[in-house]
């Protein structure tokens, strides 16, 4: 008697997700089997052989996967899209990609219940979109600030947490109201205000901050530490980090130079309160949208060390571009106020301008970037499911006056580990987006590179 298999069993034999097999059947990529009296599919040995052949590339090498064909028809510029919804605007993060990009990639290249990873998670854009789309998420980043932002971005607050933060806001407001803005220093009960809260090293405080700003930031840190609940404290710390550059003498997130700013006494606390109240609204809004069955795990570690993150179904990421940006440098004052040591991150940061502009034989080159990605793909080979996709949003770099095609470097590195390029889609970057590094010019376009594990 002939043995028939179920849809789930055949998907397992083909090494694909059940939803992927159903999509192939709907699109006519593989023949529909006959059905039994209940309407259930009954896959014969011949049906199974055709599906396994298609999954292994027998068909796919000659004909484009319909999923990839659909990706190529999308309008990837998203020129008029709103990008700061929910907690996506929780904290500024230079060079982050807009949420519409990972959202589209996740919907097309994975199924509900899959695990989606961002191996350079930054401010957690992919992670939030993953859990909103009912996928599990894994984030990896060597930057401790990135890990903290990502945790705060995807963690809903319950009623008790909101109440605790409301009490915290009231305490902050009392401090702000005790400051007299018509004098040259902070005053409290007629005496100069001095917080008992912790603050970074004196040389950082004196060089980058006015004295009264230091006292207000220290007091905010002290008040945040008194908030019950880890998620609530995380949100407070991320909010504090979000305002640090604005109240410092650092020119901006993308310019690490000093300039005078007019920060009046009380402005720092008032700015923090405004930011925190907006953050609380955004976090409250995700409460009803995130299903607690889908979890997010965040690893503050170097991806080149091959962390044990379990099985992955899809990778969606925007890697650091060589010579474009030094996150350890531009986040230095934020890292200092959060009591994070920037040196471990500085030593392992990929793509940093510091590494690529160094002098001597230790200077990084395009080969450095390619070798790093070869290491990453070898690691992904072990944790990404068979025929799983790796999607990267990456632009070109300029090094020693030469244009570097980063997408090709990554694709070639992937090929050495058995990842085949299946799509390279160009998109234009919004003209309002700032340059990573003024010396290397403004990047006006980038590629969405999709590789597939053989």
Q: Which radius of gyration do the C-alpha atoms yield?
A: 25 Å
Q: How are the strands ordered across the major sheet?
A: 9-4-3-10-11-15-14
Class from helix and strand fractions: alpha/beta
Helix content: 40-55%
Major beta sheet summary: 7 strands, mixed
Kindly state the number of beta strands: 15
| Overall pLDDT confidence | 89
Overall geometry comes to globular
Strand content: 15-25%
Query: How many helical elements?
Result: 18
Could you characterize what this model shows?
Helices cover 43% and strands 15% of the residues. It has 454 residues and is α/β, with parallel strands linked by helices. The strands form five sheets. The protein has a seven-stranded mixed beta sheet with strand order 9-4-3-10-11-15-14, sandwiched between helices. Strand 1 and strand 2 form a beta hairpin. Helix 10 runs parallel beside helix 12 (267-287). The longest helix is centred in the middle third of the chain and has 21 residues, at 267-287. Mean pLDDT is 89; it is low at 434-441.
What attributes characterize this protein structure?
single chain, 7-stranded mixed sheet, two-stranded antiparallel ribbon, alpha/beta
